[in-house]
Amino acid sequence: MNKKVLILCTGNSCRSIIAEALINAQLENIRAYSSGVNPSGLINPNAKKVLETHHVWNESYHSKTLDTLEDIEFDLVVTVCDHAKESCPTFSKPVPTIHIGFDDPDRKEYEAFEATYKEIEQRLLPKVKDILSNKKQAKELKGKPMNKNVFKTTQGVKINFTGAVKKQQIMQMVENCATGSCACMSDETKKKMTNMEVEGKDGNIELKLTGDISKEEIESALARSTVLNNPKK
Question: Full-prediction pTM beyond 0.70?
Fold first, then answer.
């Protein structure tokens, strides 16, 4: 099922229309819609021209109010102008909202629309993709158990975390150990460690511990870790 993103601006005639078209043309499994807090009812001719030039124009694109989209449950809302940010409406269900502002090319030469097209492509699309991909990943991981595999290495100990594990969890655990605020690891074990290194991403993380430490010491510490066993919701 496609994720749904709303691009919101003031007039819904330039920036939001360009962003809507670009997302629909370039991002897989994401469907974009656009509207204005005070829509003009018309699409700027140069906005249409730049989309036609890049072969991403669709005759369905038009300037409209948000109430025409009220039956759609959005996964993300992006405001692209300050006025839309300040007057962003509330939704029946909580929706993540971000602001990525762009200068308004309206009443400028065609070159300004080309510049806006490129800026939206370079700044807005990667952000939308990253946010919605992470949401999908979090949903897929929800309910899955966390697996911990501990290995003895020549430098110390390595731990592979898979399943329902977030990188931030492991980073927090490492920070607690480094600052002495954790109680899961004995002071003797802490003194033996010379370095802690976290690699990977949510769902598949590797923690490398350097020092004269044993696998059994680390397994015991992991079993007592409140960050891992009693994470904040």
Answer: no
